[in-house]
Write a structure and sequence with these properties.
The protein contains eight helices and five strands. The protein is of the alpha+beta class. It has two domains: 3-94; 103-213, 3-Layer(aba) Sandwich (Cytidine Deaminase, domain 2). The protein has a five-stranded mixed sheet, with helices on both faces.
């Protein structure tokens, strides 16, 4: 498929205008830097191919001569890519944000909840790299499916143009085993996320004796 055959709203430039950079996949961001592909391969296909050949991030470490020799890249695009990679690296060094790619990391982020005497329900809003761009305490009180309304959880996600959401709440009893209300609320939020295009990555229940991850337990 040629890029012009992709529906306009799904093209990287239109998506970044509409959703923000944090919502784009790696190949879409790379496509915006490359701008065009070559005969027989559009820019998205070229971007996917480059990332597939360098899955460990080695693309950012290729020297200029090797990068410009890649078909579809050339001299000017190689210079632009290296400049973008270097700038991103410098900025990341000054403001690092951890990648929340495991339930334990999320549990550590929500450690403050464990000893609360009231139930707290909070959400982390993440970019496409699973880094936090916003954190919200949605409500404080007894958890019920009716209180955990998708609107309250996903409205900040849309405002922040988040790519995904992780939610968590605590059990003051100390036992992190999920209740039926927890399960119903989770199902409702997952359905809402699917409709809105903002993935619910996990729901954690925290207690003094550990945590329960719906993701780790197969959403059971």
């Amino acid at each position: 498929m040629k890029l012009r055959e992709v529906h306009r709203v799904e093209r990287p430039r239109e998506r970044i205008e509409r959703l923000g950079a944090q919502a784009l996949k790696d190949e879409e961001l790379l496509a915006l830097l490359l701008r065009t592909g070559y005969k027989g391969k559009n820019v998205l296909e070229l971007s996917k191919d480059l990332l597939r050949r360098h899955p460990d991030g080695s693309l950012t470490r290729l020297p200029f001569e090797k990068l410009k020799a890649v078909k579809g890249v050339g001299r000017s695009r190689a210079a632009a890519l290296l400049a973008a990679f270097e700038l991103a690296g410098r900025m990341a060094e000054t403001s690092p944000e951890p990648v929340l790619d495991a339930p334990q990391k999320v549990a550590d982020r929500f450690a403050w909840m464990r000893t609360k005497r009231q139930e707290h329900f909070a959400a982390l809003y993440l970019n496409a790299r699973r880094q936090v761009i916003r954190e919200e305490t949605v409500f404080i009180g007894t958890l019920s499916a009716s209180l955990v309304h998708p609107r309250e959880v996903f409205a900040p996600a849309l405002e922040a143009r988040a790519a995904a959401v992780v939610v968590a709440h605590n059990h003051p009893s100390g036992d992190p085993s999920p209740s039926q209300e927890d399960r119903e609320a989770t199902k409702r939020l997952r359905r809402a996320g699917e409709l809105l295009g903002v993935e619910l990555l996990d729901h954690l229940v925290l207690g003094e004796r550990g945590f329960y991850s719906f993701l780790e337990q197969g959403w059971a």
